[in-house]
Design brief:
3% helix, Jelly Rolls, seven-stranded antiparallel beta sheet, 36% strand, Peptidase_S1A, six-stranded antiparallel β-barrel, single chain, membrane, disulfide bond, 1079 residues
């Protein structure tokens, strides 16, 4: 028996090595994926995190990733990020993606979080850490890797937040102040605490006092203190710990040496229990009386219980029961033994099904052709899959409450084996888990393959589980059927449908005959591999075949479907003709500006502190607002629009040309189906970029035409690819062209390109292959540029149409039977039109129905569906504009939003030319608001939780004299008073004084009385007066007063004057914000 120190590549993976996608930096020519040895001698840049990007993160928010993300990180890496935010804020940290080497106790690759008290936690594997809120404004993140396995890595975000948000974000914990208070694990005592939890309480009592913490109930899992409470004597560095408290024994009261204390609770990923409750008081108060209870002596597993990994050697099956768990091959992650035969029988409670997800797999063999070493999964009905190799199979769900897993090996090569997570799930969750299929008890219904009538996805498992009343049988009728055909040599159906326990597998295009079940249950499984996809199938079931077949509901039109697109005319007609007379094989510099739709997409990488743009991809101008390009060009910086610019009218990249114009980016739309590298194929490699301003065409800048929908070019058709691509054909040492190049490429028929000795399963019907087949012509295929155009003419003199978008090619660009592959534009005409129409719709609509810009003298607006419930995750915007000289008067007729403290959830925000006019939420009807100026902006947003009926409002134009308080003034002296002065001002007041005097004068604002609501616990003004100055800093002043809905005070009184002789007993100010009782 031999053991490999590191795994090699299967035939499939050897094929995948030719697939490439640009991850970052310059996309030179056709972008390529290649494998090189790690250079450990690379110097470490001072101030660098070690993973690229800065070590010091000091902004209000930010993002950081592991090295090479989303590609695999390197071995032997050590990275550090120091996050620091404003002193009055704390840090909300969360992980968007997380995939590290999975080891027990995180002894391999891991992320470590540390604060002033020490290490908060260590994380590894594939479970995302829960969102975390720091205790202070500083947090350190470490990422360390060993010299063994790597994975995709992680992407993390942080944001500065108010301390009072800690409880809402983390689910428990927070910042507690006052003489006394309570703290407990969430759900206590009715619910057990969750696995993988981290809750932190920072307790502060008045200066001079000490904190006494008394536990009133305590019931944690006793095993090895995996779940524990730790109490710190303060929150600053060096604060001592009283040790870890766990089990079911009530701890003694703990007292701090100062006025602060930190309580930290952590749970692991195994058993959970009831939790704890505690009371804190000032030490000067009487001790808390603890109620007499009998604490339980054993933990109570719950639905969150995850058992330790279960391994087995040879012998009978291991019986695994419970709600969730992990099974692994013997010795995992070390190589498994030879001649192994292991089996597990997983059983869950009646009424549940079993979800099994393989999280790591390294078994010698090739997918679809496993030999002696293999992992076999089955349930009571059938085999659910036989797996080997290194690509993870899809999630499977059993059809009953039992599942069997068998793993066997021969006496030859071994590898890590596998690790898998199982969990009891409800039948109604099938669709959410697998992304397809469902469970139903209806007597009739329709079944469709995923994406129907578009091609189904690769590497999926779908299950439909139908049960009808006793005494009835089910008839299944297929109406459409188009799956991958049987293998010619083996007659095996690689993509197939099985109907249990009756018939199958079905594949190909022959419509299966009508099927009737023997009992009351219909179980259908649909399996697809990684290779060829097809249209899929549609079927229906019924218990009464004599009734008409069920029909699909009509497709609901989008509100933007009928919006016309002003496509450019003419298009595809260069003012400067390109040189296309001779047959160009090796490529040559293009005639300057003869391909006027060519775009140089330029990026400002985050490694540059100041804006410095460089060419990274190509694109095609198809509309005055739109550039067509490849989705893989935006695998980095897709959400950072300021890092991109689109340059037109360029020929030479080394200097600025008189003809060029560069445009900013207002939106980037990548195709929703683009999933590389999660899915090992570059399908749906198309994107649209909206420019921030309209293009002005010229002789050097104009548009390419789009082809007809689904137009497929014949084999041998000559087209032209253009770009500033690599001129050497050496993708390891590329040399970018200074001038735009062009190359003539004939179309390779799809049936040829999809052959196993060409691109096989990597090429899809939505792609075009172009290139030469003779050995002396192979060097032609390296010209071009990722995202750039492949253009063709129907005939000589006809307009040029962009038929392809440069997508991928072989390593080194030059390889026999590996032509260049382009995204076929004609396959995406509906998608292109839909994106542009939707963008046009969103630009002019509010998001709640109706127009965004409301212009006139009166009108109304409301949340979507009012008075029915509004949508979750809504984002609505209105811009109300009345005639010049008038003001906007807004009146709410109804108002009911999700209950929220400090308007952190669903809310309405009002602004005008001066600034904020208030933020409103919950069920309090806002008071009428009058804008300063003739424009009022209104926005509404909702989260993904509770919804309510929403609001309805009316608006109208009013004269400035109708403002309920404040007003416009041109006198050199006047009085300002809060509403109702000297009585308490109104809740939700919004008053604006606009004072404009001759330019030679200086305005002084004087307050004689001032008493507003005090600052909140975060030190922020709640009710306040804000003073703005005009450009001259003298002759124009705007004063705004805003109040919230509680704790009104007597307000303020003052005046403005241009007289320099102001009494020294009073306070004058400009450009300040005031609250509290203060002069």
């Amino acid at each position: 028996m031999g053991r490999r120190k590191s795994r090699g590549l299967s035939t499939l993976e050897a094929c995948l090595i030719f697939l490439f996608v640009a991850m970052t930096g310059a996309c030179i020519g056709l972008v390529v994926v290649y494998f090189v040895d790690k250079d450990d001698s690379a110097p470490h840049i001072e101030g660098d995190s070690g993973c690229g990007g800065p070590q010091e993160l000091t902004g209000e928010s930010g993002t950081f990733t592991s090295f090479n993300y989303p590609n695999s990180y390197d071995n032997g890496k050590s990275c550090t990020w120091q996050i620091t935010v404003d002193p009055d804020k704390v840090i909300h940290l969360w992980f968007e993606e997380f995939a590290l080497e999975d080891t027990q106790q995180c002894t391999g690759d891991l992320v470590t979080l540390r604060d002033s008290l020490g290490i908060i936690g260590k994380y590894c594997g594939y479970s995302k850490p829960k969102p975390l809120v720091s205790l202070t404004n500083h947090l350190t993140v470490y990422f360390d890797t060993n010299d063994r396995k790597t994975d995709q890595g992680f992407k993390a975000h942080y944001k500065a937040v108010s301390p009072e948000l800690a409880t809402e974000i983390a689910g428990a914990g927070g910042f507690l102040q006052g003489d006394m208070g309570k703290l407990m694990t969430p759900g206590f005592p009715e619910q057990n605490y969750p696995n993988g939890a981290l809750y932190q309480w920072r307790i502060t009592v008045p200066e001079g006092e000490k904190v006494r913490l008394t536990f009133t109930s305590f019931d944690l899992v006793p095993e090895v203190c995996g779940d524990f409470v730790e109490v710190y004597d303060g929150h600053k560095a060096g604060s001592s710990s009283g040790g870890k408290l766990c089990g079911g024994t009530m701890p003694k009261p703990v007292e701090s040496s100062s006025n602060t204390m930190v309580v930290r609770f952590k749970s692991d990923n195994s058993l959970t229990s009831k939790g704890f409750s505690a009371t804190y008081t000032m030490s000067s108060l009487p001790p808390v009386v603890i109620p007499t209870t009998t604490p339980p002596t054993t933990p109570r597993p719950t639905t969150q219980t995850t058992r330790p990994p279960t391994t087995t050697g040879s012998g009978g099956p291991v019986i695994v029961q419970g709600r969730k768990g992990v099974i692994q091959s013997s010795g995992f992650p070390n190589p498994y033994p030879a001649h192994l035969h292991s089996s597990w029988k997983i059983s869950v409670s009646k009424g549940f099904l079993i979800k099994l997800q393989i999280t790591d797999m390294a078994i010698p063999g090739e997918m679809g052709a496993c030999k002696e070493d293999k992992l076999v999964i089955s349930d009571n009905y059938s085999t659910l899959g036989t797996h080997c190799g290194y690509l993870l199979p899809p999630v499977v769900v059993s059809a009953s409450d039992t599942m069997s897993v068998t793993f066997q090996s021969d006496g030859r090569l071994t590898d890590r084996g596998f690790s898998a997570r199982w969990e009891a799930v409800y039948p109604e969750d099938i669709t959410e888990i697998q992304g397809c299929g469902f469970s139903s008890q209806e007597e009739t219904g329709i079944i469709r393959s995923q994406n129907w009538p578009m091609n189904y996805k690769a590497n999926t498992e779908c299950m439909w589980n139908v049960a009808v009343p006793l005494g009835k049988k089910i008839t299944l009728e297929f109406t459409d059927f188009d799956l991958e055909a049987k293998d010619f040599l083996t007659s095996k159906c690689y993509d197939n449908i099985m109907v249990y326990d009756i018939n199958g597998p079905f594949c190909g295009t022959k419509l299966p005959a009508s099927i009737q079940t023997k009992g009351t249950r219909l179980l259908i499984r649909f399996h697809t591999d990684l290779f060829t996809e097809a249209k899929g199938f549609r079927a229906y079931w019924t218990t009464n075949p004599s009734l008409p077949a069920p029909t699909d509901p009509p497709v609901q039109p989008n509100p933007w479907d009928d919006i016309p697109i002003d496509w450019p005319s003419p298009c595809g007609k260069p003012a400067i003709p390109p040189s296309v007379v001779s047959r160009i094989v090796n490529g040559e510099p293009a005639v300057p500006h003869s391909w006027p739709w060519q775009v140089s997409m330029q990026v400002w990488p985050d490694s540059q502190p100041e804006p410095k743009f460089s060419h990274t991809c190509g694109g095609t101008l198809i509309h005055k607002n739109w550039v067509l390009t490849a989705a893989h060009c935006f695998m980095r910086y897709a959400d950072e629009l300021h890092r991109w610019r689109m340059c037109l009218g360029k020929h030479n990249l080394t200097y600025t040309e008189p003809s060029e114009s560069c445009y900013g980016v207002s939106a980037i739309y990548r195709h929703e189906g683009f999933k590389y590298p999660t899915v090992p194929t570059v399908e749906f490699d198309i994107a649209l970029v909206r420019l921030n301003v309209e293009v002005k065409p010229s002789d050097e800048i104009s548009y390419a035409c789009l082809p007809s929908e689904e137009e497929v070019l014949p084999g041998g058709k000559k087209c032209y690819a253009t770009g500033w691509g690599d001129e050497t054909g050496d993708s390891l040492n590329p040399k970018a062209a200074e001038e735009l190049n062009q190359v003539a490429l004939p179309v390779v028929p799809f049936d040829t390109c999809k052959r196993m000795d060409y691109w096989w399963f990597q090429v899809k019907s939505s792609m075009i292959c172009c290139g030469y087949t003779l050995p002396d012509e192979l060097k032609s295929v390296c010209q071009g540029d990722s995202g750039g155009p492949l253009v063709c003419q129907d005939s000589a003199g006809a307009p040029w149409e962009v038929h392809g978008i440069t997508s991928f090619g072989p390593v080194g660009c030059i390889m026999d039977k590996k032509p260049s592959v382009f995204t076929r534009s004609s396959a995406y005409i509906p998608w292109i039109s839909n994106v542009i129409r939707r963008d046009m719709y969103n630009e002019h609509t509010s998001g709640c129905g109706g127009p965004k810009d409301l212009i006139g003298t009166s009108g109304s607006l409301s949340t979507m569906g009012f008075p029915g419930g509004y949508d979750n995750n809504a984002r609505c915007q209105w811009n109300i504009q009345v005639p010049v000289g008038k003001l906007v008067h807004l009146h709410f007729q109804n108002f009911s939003l999700e209950e929220s403290q400090m308007c952190l959830n669903d809310k309405v925000t009002l602004t005008d030319t001066v600034g904020s006019l208030g933020t409103h939420c919950s069920h309090v009807l806002p008071k009428d608001v009058v804008s300063q100026g003739n424009v009022l902006h209104m926005s509404f947003s909702s989260n993904d939780k509770t919804v309510d009926t929403g609001f309805a409002a009316t608006w109208k134009a009013v004269d400035p004299v109708e403002a309920p308080c404040g007003g416009s003034f041109s006198s050199e002296r006047g009085e300002i008073v809060s509403p109702n002065w000297p009585n308490d001002y109104d809740a939700q007041s919004a008053c604006t004084w606009h004072i404009n005097v001759p330019s030679a004068k200086m305005i002084h604002v004087v307050f004689t009385h001032f008493e507003l609501q005090a600052v909140n616990v975060l030190g922020n003004c709640v009710d306040y007066v804000e003073i703005f100055s005009g450009e001259s800093m003298t002759s124009l002043v705007v004063i705004r007063f805003l109040s919230n809905g509680a704790d009104q005070q007597s307000g303020f009184r003052g005046y403005w004057t241009t007289d320099r002789n102001i009494s020294s007993n009073h306070h004058s100010c400009v450009l300040m914000l005031h609250c509290q009782k203060h002069l």
